[in-house]
Structures are given as C-alpha cells and as structure tokens.
Design goal:
2 helices, hydrolase, EC 3.5.-.-, hydrolase activity, alpha+beta, 6 strands, RidA family protein
Length: about 140
C-alpha cells in the first residue's frame, strides 16, 4: 500500500491552490498533480476566449509543478484533459506538442484522456489538465 510522502501547495510561478495541494507524492514513486488552469502566478486569467493560450498557460503551470517535483515532461505517466468545447482540439494538441515533442522526441505521448465537460470552476476557463507523474521510489 502506498503512503503519502508529501503534499506540495507552494509552487514557484503557480498561483496558490486554496484548500488543496498542487501535487501529492506517494511512497510508490508516483505524484498526482491537481488540475492546472489558465491563471498566472497572481491568479489572473490568461487567454480569455483563446483555447491555445489557456492550454499554454495550464501547461506552463504544470511544468512548474513538474520542476518542483524534480521531474520533467519525460516523467509524465498520464494526462487527463477537461475541455468545455472539443471543436478546438487541434489547437490543444498543437500546444501540447510544443511542450512534449522537445522532451519526448519520437517517443509516444503519455497515456491521456480527454473529457468534454459542461463547464469548469469558472465560466471563462476553457481547459484544465491534471497529471500522474513518475517521481521515483522515494516519492520525490
């Protein structure tokens, strides 16, 4: 049975999560990253009505969480995407690849799920992404 090692809530460059950790590491070498959205370090929306810009900011936040975990894009096990409209899916994929292709090269992307939702926490949010990350047996 895996035990929780650490709950990370203060991540440089990421707005604080109110009432939750941005990531939780476990003794089995996995970290679970909370959904990242399109807000800057001050909590301001980035990319109103622009799925590509919001995806880029959400992935920038995820990248900051990865770095705080001592991980990078090659350590991603799974991404789960939540979008309010799938008509811009290619924009999301293009931005995702801006982050992943330099790290993964020709390797396949991590496991992934995409869920279309009626809405996110605030109506101006178009995308949210959460992750499972391999961080080693120590949990970080």
């Amino acid at each position: 049975m895996a035990k929780i090692n650490e709950r990370l809530s203060d991540i440089p460059g990421v707005a604080p999560g109110f009432g939750y950790a941005h990531a939780v590491t476990t003794s089995n070498g996995l970290a679970f990253v909370s959904g990242q959205i399109a807000v800057d370090a001050d909590g301001n929306l980035v990319g109103a009505n622009d799925l590509a810009a919001q995806t880029r900011q959400a992935l920038t936040n995820l990248q900051n969480v990865l770095h705080a975990l001592g991980a990078d894009w090659t350590d991603l096990v799974k991404l789960t995407w939540f979008v309010t409209d799938t008509s811009g899916l290619q924009d999301l994929r293009d931005v995702r690849d801006e982050f992943l292709r330099p790290a993964l090269g020709d390797q396949p992307n991590p496991a992934s799920s995409l869920v279309q939702v009626a809405g996110l926490f605030r109506p101006e949010f178009l995308v949210e992404v959460e992750a499972v990350v391999a961080v080693g047996e120590s949990g970080r």
